[in-house]
Amino acid sequence: MSIQLQIHPSAFPQSQREHWFESLKRQVVPAQCLYESIGQASRWLAYAKAWSPIHRGKDYQGVYDRAYAAAWGCMDRRAFDYLALGCGDGYKDASFFNHQAARALNGYLGLAEISPSLLIEASQKLASFQPEAWVVDLASAPEAFFRPSNPDNPRRLISCMGMLPTLGYQVLLPYLSRQMGPEDWLLVSANLTPSKDPESCQAILTQYDNDLAMEWYRGFLLELGLPRDSFACQASTHAMEPVTDGGFRIQIKARLKQDHCLSFYGHRLEWLAHTTLDLFRSERHTTQGLRQLFHQHGLACHESFQSEDGEEAVYLLKRASA
């Protein structure tokens, strides 16, 4: 079976090279770098299957099942388009349609992902819907690139699972708010912190500070050509802005043990020993703080579904009334 991928201008090599180089000059690794190559996609899948909440127990799958049932209910058996932003390997999107296998989409299925390798896997899982698959850098906040099945009466369910933690609320929520039409529904997953207790933060940190995770983080620097013993990675937590009401970020930083001079697509990149690279970031929100952020960005929470341990939630959102 052949699969056709659409390449958005944000993912053109020249755009990616310029973005990567400007970020790396500031010692910041762009989030998409950890997913884009075949090797990094494979390392991420191994880590995700071992540590991602949806793979860790029945309670987590139940959270998504309840959210999917509520979203199907909002569709009222009418035709709609389904847009999956940051679809990864398509596991959650396939689960959404498996939940109501007897119902037909009767619309358009669009997939968006920065990693061609992951996008191909998602397209294979959802092949019966003949998806339109886009390689796109969502961090660049691209405007509408999916084609609606009915331009005169667009009605969409936008799914954005797993993007909020790594892309961040300051980038993702304004973007999603701009995409929402009056008839649209939005499913967003979030990683939560059950309390503001620093000890709770440390317990959560172990999910990001383990062998499979570290192998994934290190993979990008190894692909750049840095020797494995020339840097060391460390995980830590840091409080987010007060507006998040107790949220915090997990950060993975790599400290260089020696000087490095890299040739990067015709550019020269120099990192000195003891330089610290910002390698990975992930956000954890409090329930109250996240609801406030939704409200500030013009998104109204219709229903929410939370795991028993308080670390994972899925929100069904609409555009807030004027």
What CATH architecture label of the largest domain applies? 3-Layer(aba) Sandwich
State the distance separating the first and last CA atoms.
Answer: 47 Å
Low-confidence stretches are: none
CATH superfamily of the largest domain: Vaccinia Virus protein VP39
The major β-sheet equals: 8 strands, mixed
Walk me through this protein's architecture:
With 322 residues, the chain is an alpha/beta fold. The protein is built from ten helices and 13 strands. It folds into two domains: 209 residues, Rossmann fold (3-Layer(aba) Sandwich); 86 residues, no CATH class. Strands 1-4-3-2-5-6-13-12 form an eight-stranded mixed beta sheet, with helices on both faces. A three-stranded antiparallel beta sheet has the order 7-8-11. A hairpin with a 2-residue loop joins strand 9 and strand 10. Helix 3 packs across helix 4. The longest helix has 18 residues. It starts with a strand and ends with a strand.
Summarize this structure briefly.
This protein has 322 residues and is α/β, with parallel strands linked by helices. It has helices at residues 13-25, 38-51, 58-75, 91-99, 116-125, 163-167, 169-179, 198-205, 211-224, 287-296, and strands at residues 5-7, 81-85, 109-113, 132-135, 156-160, 185-191, 231-239, 248-256, 260-264, 267-271, 276-284, 299-306, 312-319.
